[in-house]
Amino acid sequence: MRRFLSILLCLPCFAAQAWPDKPVRIVVAYPPGGGIDVMARQIAAKLTPQWGQTVLVENRPGANTIIASDAVAKAPADGHTVLMTTDATFSINPHLYARLPYDAERDFIPVTMLVLLQQLLVAHPSLPADTLPDLIKLAKAKPGGIRYATYGSGSQPHLSGEMLKYKAGIDLLHVPYKGISLAVPAVIAGEVELTFSGIATAMGPLKGGRLKAIAIGGAQRSPLLPQVPTFTELGFPEVETHAWFGLFVPAGSPPEAVRRIFSDTRKILEEPEFRQQQLVDKGYEVIGSGPDEFASFLRKDRESRGRAVKISGAKAE
Q1: pTM of the full predicted structure?
Q2: How far is CA 292 from the centre of its chain?
Q3: Which of 14, 105, 127, 305 fits a 20 to 30 Å CA distance from 134?
Q4: 1-16 residues labelled b (16+ CB within 10 A) or e (exposed)
Q5: CATH code, domain with 179
């Protein structure tokens, strides 16, 4: 009888098994090979032994991150499906699209913002302007005569370029390309004069003299490019160039899962070798914010991106 009672008392223990109790999927909203995919695979490899479960990376690119986001929003809310995406999903898309197949605020729990990445305004070396004041002066003398490349209407470079135009009172010609990897080569080839680029992508061409840096986003200069002034110090704090990588789970996921994903991922970000070699040296600002802090940041980011989208006139393509 005692044994029977002890079994009954332990039944809740069996019912509430520790998370995770099966493989975990990290659904990446971008194709294999890019910075966010590489980071997802590095994190997954470190989480697998910690959790005693396989952590898989599944790429679901397409439709400006909507395909992956929709898949995760509709996944079981058990903490075993995680979305890894960028600011496009939660800060920009709600303003670009009249309708989305999910609610960006209601259908997800923000877990952690992993990193922040400020973009550079870079130019072809032949452009007769080496500073932002020089560029503005040149643009005012040649309205519409200076072209800047992006990877589409509503993309981060497009919003940054249009905000710069608006605040500086200049006219630049927007030239959208079909993909994130084409804008920088277009500037190097001299097809256009300007674009916005992440530090990792631009560093090689900058060192080789095939590009020159005009300004960078953020409140402080990058330690990798200390000679490049920020838009803020040049008087244009509204020109936001940042992108971020973050983790989300479906709304209703167990609090324990949210806590474990956040805390264990943050530990990885704080590993000295990983932090320096895989993040800082590639131009990422390590964040590792908690769910509440991330949610607060998202509200402000969504609002500021909404203003940028309105100024740009961007619409979903």
Answers
A1: 0.90
A2: 18
A3: 305
A4: eeeeeeeeeeeeeeee
A5: 3.40.190.10
